[in-house]
Amino acid sequence: MFLYKFLAEIILIIHFLWILFMLFGFVYNVVGLFFNKNLLKNFWLRTIHLFGILYVLSLAILDKYCPLTVLESKLRQKFEPNFINLESFIIYYLEKIVYPNINPIVIIIPTVLIAVFSLIVYIVKPPIIKLNLCKKRYS
Q1: Taking all residues of the chain, what is their mean pLDDT, rounded to a whole number?
Q2: Is 138 among the domain residues?
Q3: Using CA atoms, how far apart are residues 13 and 73, in angstroms rounded to an integer?
Q4: In a domain, 27, yes or no
Q5: How far apart are CA 69 and CA 62, in angstroms?
Q6: Distance between CA 27 and CA 2 in Å, rounded?
Q7: Which of 4, 81, 101, 114 is deepest in the core (most CB within 10 A)?
Q8: Is the pLDDT of residue 108 over 70?
């Protein structure tokens, strides 16, 4: 039983880190666009962020739950159907951040704006794909 609780809390932390990455990607694009154009060259970070925020947007528009939310919920239900974690200060506040009790439109509107902004920046200033080609040296 403890394993389910532990796994649910790990999923919550991963979910929190995912949210931070989505916000970080937005700030990264803003800073890159207005202050440091070299940041916009990072292909992998920008591509993963773009697909991630578009996925989050699609879930919000379709009124679907994030798979991490579903997984965490199932793990918590296995531990105890009416589980409330009063012991873990950090987990308690992470839950308040990851699952705020607010009108969904307050989440959807910024998500749409971040996704649209990220897509426009990606198109206007596409990242550079660096190919590391092995160069043979002859002595």
Answers
A1: 85
A2: no
A3: 13
A4: yes
A5: 15
A6: 38
A7: 114
A8: yes
